[in-house]
Amino acid sequence: MIYRYREKYPIWRMCKFFGVSRSGYYAYTHNLNRPNPNQSIIDQIARQQKRCKNTYGYRRMHLWLDKNGCHRNPKTVLRLMKTNGLLSEIRRRRQWKQLGQQV
To answer: Would you say 25 and 11 are in contact if contact means Cβ atoms under 8 Å apart?
Structure first.
């Protein structure tokens, strides 16, 4: 909202009204046109998750990225997978069902 109406109203007044610091607003506008530095890694992770049908967790994905020459911290891989919705689907084992009294 502040960025949209920056020419109509003073920025300091809108920041005060919305409870946003001016430095936070200017940091946001500074980063608007910057590309994401991790976009190539995100694309690799998305392709691999599609290929393996969302079965790779962040630990396995970290090993796969290391094997393919992209060395990142496992926590970085986890953060990227969380923020982009690329975490694996949880596969639960079936609970054991009683089939009745056995003879």
So the answer is: yes
- To 10 degrees, the CA torsion angle through 73, 77, 82, 84? 130
pTM for this predicted structure: 0.66
Q: 54 lies in which domain range? A: 39-83
> Quick one: DSSP state of residue 87?
P
For residue 54, the 8-state DSSP code is S
Q: Are residues 47 and 17 in the same domain?
A: no
Same domain, 30 and 11: yes
Tell me the C-alpha distance between 34 and 6, whole Å. 20
- The alpha-helical segments, DSSP class H, found in the chain are 11-18, 22-30, 39-51, 58-67, 74-83
For 70-90, what is the mean pLDDT? 93
- 11 and 26 fall within a common domain: yes
Q: Rounded CA gap, 31 and 28, in Å? A: 5
Question: What's the pLDDT at 41?
Answer: 96
Q: What is the pLDDT of residue 99?
A: 65
